[in-house]
Amino acid sequence: MKVLGRYDKIGNQIVDTHTGEIIDTDDIKRTVEEDLLTHANQSVRTLSELGINAEVRIIKDKLGEPYEVFSVKENHEFNKIFRVDVNYMFENSDLSIEAAGFLGRFIGKLHFPSNTIMLNGKHPNQDEMCEFLRIGRTKLNSILKELEYYDVIKRVKINGKTYIYINPFLVCTGLLAVDTYKLFEKSIYNPNKIISD
After folding, report:
1. pLDDT digits 0-9 by tens, 69-82
2. CA nearest 78: which of 193, 179, 172?
């Protein structure tokens, strides 16, 4: 039986008809999958060049396994969660459940491109955050101090108003304001951080 026009199966072995070499089944599988991936992605590029949106494409994960994928929500706003760094943060800190809850409540309420916390289209004051979280000011201040300690947020006062920035190396709205990057430039989660003596 011919496979890809270049291989024969003789008994229980696969043979390269050009060289006579016996081919390992894992090698032939990898070759066929890479060929399929190349042709599938080439087809997607062709559709894109013609102005046609391809619903499904094929990618490989970190282990090299191919997956058919598609976008769940086209043309919607989203936040990137850098899960490796978020996992590292949770595993290497004593972050309280309240601080984790704060993140969970505000993670979907970030301003693009500043990565600051927003509520109802504006930057909230302490009373508004307390009402939203159903906690008191003392608890809120404790949570904010804890999140600052673990390099998750920074509080910045501008013209008497406090803005809370979420570390964009943990969660990011996409493109980022340069001022926000500079706030977190020396963050332990910044993969581009230059380590100085």
Report:
1. 666 666 667 788 89
2. 172
**CA–CA separation, 49 and 61 (whole Å):** 25
- Residue range 133-173, pLDDT digits in tens: 999 999 999 999 999 999 999 999 999 999 999 999 999 98
Query: Considering only CA atoms, which of 85, 57, 60, 83 is closest in space to residue 71?
Result: 57
Percentage helix, strand, coil for the chain under 3-state DSSP, each rounded to 5: 35, 20, 45
Q: Token pair for residue 172?
A: 């990011």
Q: In terms of C-beta distances under 8 Å and separation of at least 24 residues, what long-range contacts does 33-37 make, across chains too?
A: 33/66, 35/4, 36/66, 37/66
CATH classification code of 80-184: 1.10.10.10
Give the span between the Cα atoms of 71 and 54, in whole angstroms. 10
Cα(143)–Cα(130) distance, integer angstroms: 11
User: pLDDT tens for residues 114-142?
Assistant: 999 999 999 999 999 999 999 999 999 99
d(CA 20, CA 82): 48
Residues in the chain, overall count: 197
Domain residue ranges in the chain: 2-69, 80-184
The model's pTM: 0.66
Residues 12-34 have a mean pLDDT of: 81
Q: What are phi and psi of 147, to 5 degrees?
A: -65, -35
Tokens at residue 119, please? 């509520």
Q: Are 155 and 129 in contact (CB under 8 A)?
A: no
